Amino acid sequence: MTTQPTPFPAATILGYPRIGPRRELKRALEDHWAGRTDKAAFEASAAQVRRAAVTRLRDLGLTAPAAVPLDFAHYDQVLDVVLALGALPARLASDPEVAPLLTEGDGATVQPLPLAVEWALARGTTAQGPLEMTKWFDSNYHYLVPEIGPDTSLAYRGSRRADHVREAAALGVAGRPVLVGPVTFLLLAKAAADAPAGFDPLDRLDVVVAGYAALLADLRAAGAEWVQLDEPALVSDSWARTTAELASAVGHAYAALAAAQERPAIFVAAPYGTLPGEALAALATAGVEAVGVDLVKGEVPDGEAPDLGALTLVAGVVDGHNVWRTDLDAAAARVAALAALGAGATTVSTSTSLLHVPHTVADEAGAPLLPERVAGWLAFADEKVAEVLAIAAGADGAPDAFAAARAALADRAGAPGVVRPEVRARAAALTPSSFTREPYAVRRAAQEAVLDLPALPTTTIGSFPQTAELRRARAALRRGELTEQGYEDAMRAEVASVIALQTELGLDVLVHGEPERNDMVQYFAEQLDGFAVTQQGWVQSYGSRCTRPSILWGDVARPAPITVPWATYAASLTSAPVKGMLTGPVTILAWSFVRDDQPLGDTATQVGLALRDEVADLEAAGIGVIQVDEPALRELLPLRRADQDAYLAWAVAAFRLATSGVAVRTQVHTHLCYSEFEEVFGAIDALDADVTSVEAARSRMSLLPAVAAAGFERGIGPGVWDIHSPRVPSEEEVTELLRLALESVGERSLWVNPDCGLKTRGYAETTAALQALVGAARRVRAEIGATTAV
To answer: Where are the beta strands (DSSP E) in 152-230?
Structure first.
């Protein structure tokens, strides 16, 4: 540092929702990708979303220098670092659509890479798929996985964050740019396909740090006095490196960055869990100016307290990952506990970025969906900013805020429906037999006799495209412009169309397409007791995709069948098997904002019991194939290994509780997508589903050798079409993937399906891709001469 930085603000947040309160960024992205707007129009729209967020945070009271985080990303924060370092995988850098965009310019200045390069990495090109996508720590946000090899270019290419600093300054705000830190960036990366055996992306830390040093100099030149570098990888021990090795790496990286002559002051944030004492000590001695710790999911760092000197500790005491109002008294006590470590200063913040919560509860005022009483228990992003400011002021400085928080907590604890004795009695009466089925060999024989399917049976994951017509019908129903009967007639017409299309394409196990479902979790939440839903509670899942998490506030029960009428109607239209489609208990929890007043496993049991009733009713109605999706199984996995077995035990038990009440002839499927399956493969096996479908297209079946090595004996459907990209695979591509799959999976066990549901795709690409899928399955059947039924 060439000058003394301004003090770190007494109150701040780690990040803010970036999609806009009415999903303005989503619409800008999709209009641009569809060709309805040009580059200039998209950039103008994105700038307006940024300026509105900065202005909003300033007006909420984050007025101190560096109090407003500048964490805006067009698509993904990890992708932003890929772009800043020019870390393009060779397969994309040499792609004819990308290579012409990578010119060096005049060499005198660095310029951010063009938007077209960003979209190629995020969405793929005609010839190449995009970067892989997986879950961001224990959240429902997805990030793009960098591909790093020994020769990957990692030189600073320019960052839009510098422009964001200048943009905020024009609004009178001295903002704090936010980036993923260098150690976390490399730990989240995968080794490039052509990297030698044993190569670890973290081996390239020194080169990446040099790139970050150039980036920091650029930010300082733009006027940034502070920069936030997020290092959530430090709170996890699920890496190939030990905690001590990570502490050494982070100390080495930040000592180098702190030694740079031209840089902002550095704030290292470690959200999502407890920062180990070794890592805190390493950062304290490295020379950074501030370190943030999560005191919601984590604890005060353990071990002998290092000499913190002038270091500022940032106490993350307002939950950035859930929506319940904060116990301000308890939060203030945690701030005091952190201050006892003896740092130069202690300030107040959120535990994580507010990326994970909606914009404001005020948007629900007068809305028919969220009960007013439940709304009083909630704090979304804007309300959490107010909580941070109140804690920083203290009970004496903000007495009304502390009193209101106490009243809301008391009201929530005593509200009807929070505790339902009949639900708890049913859970207490469960026995071991409630969680088990007959052995798989018995089930398989019965199912083969009933279903009579060919080898390599083809199916889809569940949803078909949610067209504009379907969305308009749903909106018309909400406005009262369409009757319930009119809406049901429109949905039935879509189901009939979906069944006809699948029959024409030649799929073996059909689905009804789920046109009646607004969301795979919200649809169930709207019909289960103990849940509430919002009207504007959107959060970003990835890129332009947003979800509206439901709010699970009380004990859960199912008052009536939910999916049975739709499944039986679809089955009446065909002689082929039709799958009943349910969302599993763990995914319902993971994709909702869940009550925090009882153990999560107890809540999972309640949801499992409600789904068990639905499964029983589907079977009784003649539905012989039932899929219970658990794409979020890996998502909730605790970041510390010591906590993982307990989580997996109740997660598996909840699924088995939901699915173990059926006869041997009923085939139970499950689906998982975009997760590191190898980490939880034992749990996937323990689910005991008859068929498991998983994401595998982007990784080209890379998980299957591990599946084979583990002796997995039941059916498996590795996805052959990456539905999160607009690319339509050719029949030849799908055929090649199936040949790869057969190297690890026996022909009697292999199913053929997309990676995920088709809700986000259009009918033209869906039809073309499913034609390729069915054609490839037939081709490979012919190659292996397979006639054995599955």
So the answer is: 176-180, 190-191, 226-230
